[in-house]
Write a structure and sequence with these properties.
It is built from twelve helices and no strands. By secondary structure, the protein is mainly alpha-helical. The longest helix is centred in the middle third of the chain and has 38 residues.
Length: 263
């Protein structure tokens, strides 16, 4: 523990950059997760939707907290890292397939295909069965965030700090992130590019285990790797925003552009 604290003290700016990136990833993933959860409650009465999502937020806090404990295990068990890398790459692939779907309209998810919903709806009703699968999705999303966090740094103090602040931010700045992503729709793409890079980094941790003295293994075990990863992440998110504001490349959302032109 003292060594981890010493690493932070000796490298304050890179450590702050890593925590900032973790907060950014946590917030962006939470917005995307919230969008999925919102579609899961569309078939409920309007009076029940907010209540179901409120339970979902509570579950998100609980599972994110448990995920920090899981993060400490993930860092110690070497083979969980490449497995996590494959999982993150699967999420990117699944997102790409979703982008290729022709129908972009928001529809309620067919929950009847979910095993937990089928097992519980008869005994506890549609509302609580929906809450049950919302909590199941929260658990899955927490795993996503843990794998992404550990890919940034092996320092468990930084991981827990970033994830914990991200948990707090999830409630207070989620709406701001929604507005930001509505204005800059390409940020979702940026988020999944980062997730893909993190997945590749976790896969490359195999070199750290089997060839620790090799060039790749030494690089990913160095502070330079953490700084490089943080710099790339910041660039992927903020350079497109800057160029969009200055040159409209990538293009902002059409509605936003029209509103700006009217002004």
């Amino acid at each position: 523990m003292k060594e981890l604290i010493r690493q932070i003290i000796d490298n304050p700016l890179p450590s702050l950059a890593i925590v900032g990136n973790l907060i950014l990833i946590e917030s962006l993933l939470s917005v995307d997760n919230a969008a999925v959860l919102a579609t899961m409650v569309l078939d409920l009465d309007k009076s029940q939707r907010k209540k179901a999502l409120r339970y979902g937020i509570i579950g998100a806090y609980i599972f994110r907290g448990c995920a920090m404990v899981f993060a400490s295990l993930l860092i110690k068990i070497w083979w969980l890292k490449p497995v996590g890398g494959l999982y993150l790459l699967y999420l990117v692939w699944d997102w790409i397939k979703g982008q290729q779907s022709e129908d972009g309209e928001e529809e309620a998810i067919d929950k009847k295909g979910n095993w937990l919903y089928r097992a519980t709806v008869g005994s506890i009703g549609a509302f609580w069965a929906t809450v049950a699968i919302v909590e199941l999705m929260d658990m899955a999303f927490s795993i996503d965030n843990v794998f992404a966090a550990v890919a940034f740094t092996p320092n468990i103090i930084l991981v827990c700090t970033g994830v914990f602040i991200g948990i707090l931010a999830m409630r207070f700045i989620a709406q701001w992130f929604v507005q930001l992503m509505e204005k800059f729709a390409f940020l979702e793409t940026s988020a999944f590019i980062v997730i893909g890079i993190l997945g590749i980094k976790l896969l490359l941790s195999l070199f750290q285990h089997f060839q620790p003295d090799g060039a790749v293994g030494k690089f990913f075990d160095s502070r330079a790797a953490d700084i490089t990863m943080s710099s790339i992440t910041v660039a992927i998110f903020f350079i497109p925003i800057i160029t969009s504001l200055l040159f409209n490349v990538p293009k902002k959302t059409e509605e936003v552009v029209e509103a700006t032109d009217k002004e």
